Amino acid sequence: MSDPTGRKAVAAVWRIESARIVGALARHTGDFALAEDLAQEALAEALVTWPREGVPRNPAGWLLTVGRRRAIDAFRRRATRDEKYAVLARDLGEGGASSGGAPPEEVDDVPWDPDRIDDDVLALVFTACHPVLSREARVALTLRVVGGLTSDEIAKAFLVPTATVQARITRAKKTLGAARVPFAVPAAGERAQRLGSVLSVIYLIFTEGSSASSGDDLIRVDLAGEARRLARVLAHLVPDEPEVHGLLALLELTAARFPARTGPDGEPVLLEHQDRRRWDRAAIRRGRAALAHAEKAGRGLGAYGLQAAIAECHAVAPSVGATNWERVVLLYEALGRLAPSPVVDLNRAVAVSMARGPAAALPIVDGLVAAGALGGSHLLPGVRGELLVRLRRADEARVELERALELCGNERERTVLRGKIADLG
Fold it and tell me: Is the residue at 251 inside a domain?
């Protein structure tokens, strides 16, 4: 008889241990794509076996052993006397044994070398986020092999068909193989460049979770939480990289406001109306500690660190009016020089409007309009409409807010925009 707790145990162990299992298999086989396939096969076998026979004493060791046995069979199929097969079989201490029998249920030894866990997981992160892959492929592969999410979960998070996610993952693995990307932590000279790609992927995942681009929910807490978990793992693996701690600080300080960003029915609550008593104080403390860690390096804050410093200004202020907006403006100016983008300029305009009034901010926004920036985004007309409302130019404001409504894909944000238009009379 099938035990439902067995399937729950499989899901829990996979979420916690999948990165280490895939990493260990990739180190043994030297093939990232094969390792991910082997881990998925072990997962499928566990979903059948554990509910029927019970959860083994060492679940991670069970999964890794099944994966390594499947690797032996895969190499045997390629070539009977393949050298890699011989090495793997010797590692398992079972000579020519095949995986035809049931895997051992009890594994007492640690299923991987504790001294190499960090190397394996770090190599996994760098491989999944390799610049040779498209942005969408990096996100999907990272959530799959590092985060332990299923294709269905990734598809649900990004509101795309499961088949699309599966195709991205398959294509990503083929691309890594064709480009002969090694499963290894990059050399020191290459690591800084590659680290930027890793941070970008984690930030993209969090951004989609914290401000959903489409759908009915304003915030996808699970997706944002996964990004925070990945950032914590990365901060543990590369503790001497200040920008990693800057990103972690940004995610923690931003997520701290989640409890107050939506009302009882999921409707958005703007910053000026949020009950700051509902902000997550523990997340604020973690975020400020991570930011302090980044500052201690003495190299100056990077782009993520500067954004974290801006988030800290909000986190420590008792109200919108009491926020140190001049400091926020300065931080956005520094961010604009370090990582120029229309979004940074738009956010700087908002800060300028709070520090010096809407008339001082409108030229910044008009400059973005003239440059054709953010053409397909609702953010630019939304901000311009807000400034025009504050300047009592209602007719112009209505045009901008209606344009923002037309471009906005998130139903919760559309509700807020409709309310602003209605308030104009």
Answer: no
